[in-house]
Design goal:
The protein is 40% helix and 22% strand. With 439 residues, the chain is of the alpha+beta class. It has 2 domains: 304 residues, Zn peptidases (Aminopeptidase), CATH 3.40.630; 113 residues, Alpha-Beta Plaits. Strands 1, 2, 3, 6, 7, 8, 14, 15 and 16 form a 9-stranded mixed beta sheet that branches. Strands 9, 10, 11, 12, 13 and 17 form a 6-stranded antiparallel beta sheet that branches. α1 packs across α4. The longest helix has 33 residues. It is elongated, with a radius of gyration of 24 Å. It starts with a helix and ends in a 5-residue tail after the last strand. The N terminus is likely disordered.
Length: 439
Amino acid sequence: MAGDTGFGAVEAALDRGAADLEGMAADLAAHPELGFREERTAAVLEKALRETGARVRTRIALTGIRADLGSEDAPAIFLIADLDAILTSGAAGGVAHSCGHHAQMAVMLAVFRALAEAGVPEREKVRLVFLGTPAEEFLEMEYRLGLRAEGKVRFLSGKQEMIRLGALDDACVALKYHSMSDSPERVATVNGTLNGFLAKRATFLGRSAHAGAWPEKGINALNAASLAMLAIHAQRETFRDDDHIRVHPVMKSGGTTVNTVPDTAVLETYVRGASWPAIRDADAKVDRALAAGAVAIGAAVRIDNSPGYMPFRPDPALGEVLGAAARTVLSERDIDFHDRSFASDDIGDVAALVPTCQLGYAGFSGTIHAADFKPSDPVRAYREPARILARAAFDLALNGGAKALEIRRSFKPEFTKEAYLSSMEALFASRTLEWDPGT
């Protein structure tokens, strides 16, 4: 009951800050910024975090932010939020928080503030860490590869860079929240999984010629790319259902003028899957299809791979804590403990090294990643997930972080940090395949 009394102070702080929570979410939603360029977003969060008395570090992985409350040698409970918006067709300026990251930031900030106001880090002798991570949405590849070429980043997502830079080295456990569209089947997800993926760019190289006068002198790169897409589609029956493979190419370019045989065509795709062996198996089939399209037309193809995200597998013990917290707000029938999403998130990379769990929560209408994805119910979109996550963090913090330490001790990481970084670096690869008519 002492724990209940203590959490009552946290609840009271959440109630007092409810208007600020919703105002912060609205402000962040009104000023969306793309990955590795979240300058205003980080500044707004920095100001709010400094007001709690936290020790704040900024410009981690270009725009990331970290705030600590509590003793530096205490077990650290991480609250993770994504900073970036996404390119969104139909949105003002073509950019929006159509994935709900504005809600993530506002909710996690509200949780951090409430726990700080209630004196939890000092009383329980734990450390509370807010980690604002840039560039979760995997897009603008030319820009990000340019940052890598300039030495400004080594990896193409914010959490991967923050892992490299040591911002998660001292994490005991990590909690995250993600918005969901309203559904009659469920209000929340706990212990949901996500696919991992490998990112690919295929540049088909042909030969220009006048498309009307001398098309026979050209090599049509667009035709090679089109055949490659058909060959990818022909592989789909070989993908096992349990592997959750998703391959979804887009044509980035395919010619400049109608009157010229296209000498260059560019496809980009992810190869998503539930495990790395499944991803690599599907990736080999995609490469085979890309090569087949090039060979059929007599073109060449350059295949550039970049590491995407690890499959997300939440920690079961941490999921029990988060699930218990969710039950204090929702009935059992409203919580989905078996969600298997085919989307991806770099929280999977964190979970490969640190016990991690994510709360999914409704309260939004429309379709995620579309311009109509908007909060429909502020209680569900903001206040209820904040209460659940605050309860989970509070329970993890009790008695010097006893539960958090127990979870960390029983956790078996998929990699050491060093092995993770070297394996990710090895996924950057490029090769060119050319058809030799003499073979």
